[in-house]
Amino acid sequence: MANQRLLSIVVTSYTMGRLNYNYELLDSIKAQPYSTIETIYVVERSKELYDNLEHYIQDNKITDVTLIFNTGETGASAARNIGMKEAKGEIIAFIDDDVVLANDWAEEMVKTYDETIIGVSGATLPLWECPQPKWLPQEFYWIVGCTSWLNSKEVKEIRNVWTMNSSFGREIVDMGIYFSQDIGPSGGSMTGREKNKLSEDLEFSMRAKKIIGKRIVFNPKVKVQHRVTPDRLTWKYIIQWSYWIGSSRKTLQRLYPEPKSKASVLNTEHNLLNSIFKRVLPSILKDFFTDPIPAAHELALLVTVLSLVAAGYTHTSILYRGGQ
Q1: What is the pLDDT of residues 259-275, one digit of tens each?
Q2: Strand 7-13 relative to strand 215-228: parallel, antiparallel, unpaired?
Q3: Which string of b and e fits 166-184 if b means at least 16 CB within 10 Å?
Q4: Domains of the chain
């Protein structure tokens, strides 16, 4: 295939606990028929992980991989920025180290771009590392890092990418747009009330669109499988994540207010809430008569998640009004 655009894939990893996941990811990158690819692997914290990946890449003759050990500031954003500065591609992709790429992932990712698009996210499907729970409807798959709740069968414009399966045009590097290293659910030292109340991929997407003036789209054909481990299905995780999402969405609304003539910046959440009340809740009530235990669990999930999202949103609203 002549005149293919170079696709740079940036992966970050930090723990030996994901060593085998990284091996499977590298295998799925190597298997891509789209051949104009370079991979930048940024490893931090674990020299053992770095050494094992280096040996695996050599032993399996995986070409065009740049392996970097980060000795500076740690964290996903800092590591991605290192990868961006190293990348030479016209398109720079970001994926998590616990995903597996569909065979046509790279080709579909590159094909999605036109002159109006700055970013692309794709379908992230669950790869269950535990029994698939009957009480988790697709509308709540965002809790476990999957996008099935979008329920889209065609390319559509979206607000932001999700960095477990995403890419941006090279303009971001050319214009000096990098991930903020001070924000996110476990972020760094951002001053003011926004600290730790906005995800780095959401903030990066909004900033890139504002500066460059192009669209971000979702293409369901750009597929990865994302591992879902048992820890993401615990009540502790669900409660913490739901509260943080509510808080982050209030921060988003504050930092990026939309004119009344445009759609709400929270339109994604409004559509999801509409689907929950129109499809999930009636389904739960119906299932109480045929399968009451999973239905009760699903209802508890619905009430808990919506309550905690609302609590995070409301509490953050109060903090902003009070100037704390």
Answers
A1: 655 668 999 999 999 99
A2: unpaired
A3: bbbbbebbeeebbbbbbbb
A4: 7-120+152-218 (3.90.550.10), 234-324 (no CATH)
Separation between Cα atoms, residue 78 and residue 73, nearest integer Å: 6
CB contact at 8 A, 232 and 140:
no
User: Which residues fall within 8 angstroms of residue 201, CB to CB, at 6 or more apart?
Assistant: 94, 160, 161, 162, 163, 166, 179
pTM: 0.93
φ and ψ of 156, to 5 deg = -145, 150
| Contact present, 160 and 201 (Cβ < 8 Å) | yes
Residue 190 has pLDDT above 50, yes or no: no
Which residue from 309, 170, 192 is spatially nearest to 254, judged by alpha carbons? 192
Q: What is the pLDDT of residues 22-75, one digit of tens each?
A: 999 999 999 999 999 999 999 999 999 999 999 999 999 999 999 999 999 999
Closest CA to 245 of 163, 310, 165, 321: 310
